[in-house]
Design brief:
By secondary structure, the chain is an alpha/beta fold. The chain is built from nine helices and twelve strands. Helix 8 crosses helix 9.
């Protein structure tokens, strides 16, 4: 079933068959009710002089919006089922297709291979990625270094490099890599970052009477990790909220995350 998305940001056809996000998701995209800050960021930042990396592309909504603004797009989606959906959606829009390359790859701090299954590497593929999957979906997928992908994709320094990273917890490992942060800085990148604290080590209630204590410890670990990531990233770029207010210290950053604020803009210098 083909659905026509019509909005200020996007006029595109998409395939609903096999897309577990469904028609309601695309209608929310059209109505700007789904991740409006992300849509606004892409509208503001993307143009014909932009190389855009959509890391965690899902069914391709943000990829299509970026391409509709004229950006050259490299999109990454390791889930075999949803990768087939984004591939079909791009082919349904031949005016945008020449601008987009889709990769069935998982972005990480280093390259290699892994099985697409829950117990493989939770720091790259968190358990939430597998919602609705069964064992029959297990396949081997490629894991690639963000540094290598940037160097392959963004080779013209007269163009801006914009990234959207929404990868369900795998961002923590990537942002702890000094080599990747140096690369993002070298390319003068702008990153829209969605953080998912604790997704690669989700809290699982299992000790009645002690779970409240365990949950406090879990939050403390997430808070500590947020402090560390801010300290690293802040050496290479300015961290802002999506309203562009500067996040000036690591305690503010970690407190925002603990309080449920999960989207940031990093301007690397």
């Amino acid at each position: 079933m083909i659905f026509q998305v019509q909005s200020k940001s996007l006029s595109a056809k998409v395939e609903l068959d096999g897309d577990h996000y469904g028609e309601s998701y695309w209608q929310r995209i059209a109505d700007r009710k789904y991740e409006p800050d992300t849509i606004g960021f892409i509208e503001d930042q993307c143009n014909t002089n932009v190389d855009f990396m959509d890391i965690g592309a899902a069914n391709g909504a943000m990829t299509l919006i970026a391409a509709s603004r004229g950006a050259r797009v490299s999109a990454y989606e390791p889930d075999p089922r949803i990768h087939s959906v984004i591939a079909r959606n791009i082919k349904l829009n031949p005016d945008l297709e020449p601008l987009i390359t889709v990769h069935k790859k998982a972005i990480s701090a280093e390259s290699g291979t892994l099985k697409f299954r829950k117990d493989e590497d939770s720091a790259v593929l968190s358990s939430i990625v597998f919602t609705g999957h069964d064992a029959s979906t297990e396949v081997e997928i490629e894991k690639v270094s963000l540094k290598e992908e940037i160097e392959n994709f963004h080779q013209n320094n007269s163009r801006r490099l914009i990234l959207k990273m929404d990868i369900e917890g795998a961002e923590w490992g990537i942002l702890r890599s000094v080599e990747i942060l140096k690369c993002l800085s070298l390319h003068k990148s702008t990153l829209l970052l969605a953080v998912h604290p604790g997704f690669y080590r989700p809290f699982v209630p299992k000790m009645r009477g002690l779970d409240n204590i365990r949950r406090v410890i879990w939050h403390m670990r997430n808070f500590s990790e947020s402090l560390m990531v801010f300290t690293l990233v802040n050496k290479f770029g300015n961290i802002r909220r999506t309203n562009l207010d500067r996040v000036r210290n690591r305690k503010q950053f970690a407190t925002l995350i603990l309080g449920g604020y999960y989207e940031f803009i990093v301007e690397f210098h």
